[in-house]
């Protein structure tokens, strides 16, 4: 088991006070806090190694290129990809999903083809498909979610057909923390010849994730939710699929050659090798360096330990909510099994925003609203929800304080 | 600078069906803003001095000791601005 108190020593922000109370940060599903190792790596990069990567012969550029390539290798190993060719650095999960939508679906999907999306998806895994369906003419089929927040696998199995080209599914719901059986979905999807795109924004930071074991074609995730900096994220893609895909954006890093023909008066372009083919322009080198440190930190802690710790916190908070609070309702699954450290909840007669403002008064940070998943809130018939989400530095002691304040909120 | 800009750091529309607006007062002026508002609005309920349920004209809102307020059922930003101007004057 990990020791959250020892881990907390690495997180400078956790020493601060908010509204004269010690900071309790329970909005980890939105973004995580950063350990000093990540902060130091970013500072050191700008103080010692900053240069543009690739194609320059001077020392600084060589150093920056090596660091940036190492970052790809580190991430590839973390998710058990075959190599850095399969890990494309992007801004975050949203850009990773858009990359697949624009480079794969826009080129390969046509009228009457189908894309399957579940109703528990973050807007980032709904909106790109809605936009592109109007351009490319493909249809979208939505998979139902059960009242407890789990995927309705019968609905999925009823929706899939030979027309399905891509199945888009979250590994872990950002609202309920439900862990979906991605392996089962991928197996069925592949039987129908469909690709599988997994939104791993809430799984890669919190569970051991092995792309080979899950047998998925794409996995999208963000650095900032896993102790890394903002502005860096990853799209894992199977090498053979990425090789066939058209580039996402043009310019800079993604080009090998641009040859002008005086005869045709046009340019003929050769793409760079993977992963650079999908990383147009000057990449976020420092973001990659920060992400490397974040991955190293998580590896050192151990992803099984991360998972166990969050399961324990989830179990603890859910039992305390039931035991101590009369008006608190937990949404989604009522047990902590097959669930990550995310707990959506409400207090009878109090809006989610009031809950968040009241907690903020005591230095406790939780999210309120739709959490970018309005369709799932419609399934639950909720106007909004409050959400507490945990990470490696959270403690049962913090949960006790949170419960104490929830009891005060009940007196509204 | 108008009185609202003088006291208000930012406003934030809430995410959710409620469409409430959160007003965040400037940190250094939050206590003054809270005092002014408490003088003008009617306190319907208070919880441990942390939060006040208030009414002012036809509007109901909650004011937090941390320097934040949540307004409900406002038509638009102009209406919010008008209410805040009266409350902070």
The N- to C-terminal Cα distance of chain A equals: 38 Å
Which CATH class of chain B?
Answer: Alpha Beta
Oligomeric assembly: heterodimer
What is the count of helical runs of chain B?
A: 3
Number of strands of chain A: 17
The CATH architecture of chain B is 2-Layer Sandwich
| Estimated structural class of chain A | alpha/beta
Please outline the major beta sheet of chain A: 7 strands, mixed
Range of helix content of chain A: 25-40%
CATH topology of the largest domain in chain A: Aspartate Aminotransferase, domain 2
For the record, give the distance between the C-alpha atoms at the N and C termini of chain B, rounded to a whole number.
13 Å
Strand content of chain B: 35-45%
User: Count the strands of chain B?
Assistant: 6
Description:
The complex is a heterodimer of chains A (412) and B (89). Chain A has 412 residues and is α/β, with parallel strands linked by helices. Chain A folds into 2 domains: 4-30 and 302-409, Aspartate Aminotransferase, domain 1; 38-299, Type I PLP-dependent aspartate aminotransferase-like (Major domain) (Aspartate Aminotransferase, domain 2), CATH 3.40.640. Chain A contains 14 helices and 17 strands. Chain B is an alpha+beta fold and 89 residues long. Chain B has one domain (3-88): TATA-Binding Protein, CATH 3.30.310. Chain B contains 3 helices and 6 strands; from the N terminus they run αββαββββα. Chain B has a 6-stranded antiparallel sheet. In chain B, a hairpin with a 7-residue loop joins strand 1 and strand 2. The two termini of chain B are 13 Å apart. The model of chain B has no long low-confidence stretch (mean pLDDT 93).
